[in-house]
Write a structure and sequence with these properties.
This is Acyl-CoA carboxylase subunit epsilon. Pfam families: ACC_epsilon (PF13822). GO terms for molecular function: acetyl-CoA carboxylase activity; propionyl-CoA carboxylase activity. The structure is a single chain. About 25% of the residues lie in helices and about 0% in strands. By secondary structure, the chain is mainly alpha-helical. The longest helix is centred in the middle third of the chain and has 20 residues. It is elongated.
Length: about 80
């Protein structure tokens, strides 16, 4: 930015109230910088649906569904 340019640079952080020490302000800027770095390090999730062909849960045994007459002869199924 040159001296003849009258437009000021946008403010990243502005203290509205209170007396902030240099150490407190540096700690706050470090937290913001760390959060920004962590957000940029995580890639965006894959929008495609997840493939479940190798899911281990499919190999577990499940109880077969009850036949339609199970509740008619309820004493037999207990």
């Amino acid at each position: 930015m040159s001296e003849s340019d009258p437009t000021p640079a946008p403010t990243f952080l502005q203290v509205e109230r209170g007396n902030v020490t240099d150490e407190e302000l540096a700690a706050l800027v470090a937290v913001f910088a760390g959060a920004a770095a962590a957000a940029s390090a995580n890639p965006a999730p894959d929008p495609r649906p997840r493939e479940m062909w190798g899911n281990v849960v499919d190999n577990l045994r499940h109880q077969p569904p009850l036949p339609p007459g199970a509740f008619v002869n309820q004493r037999y199924w207990q």
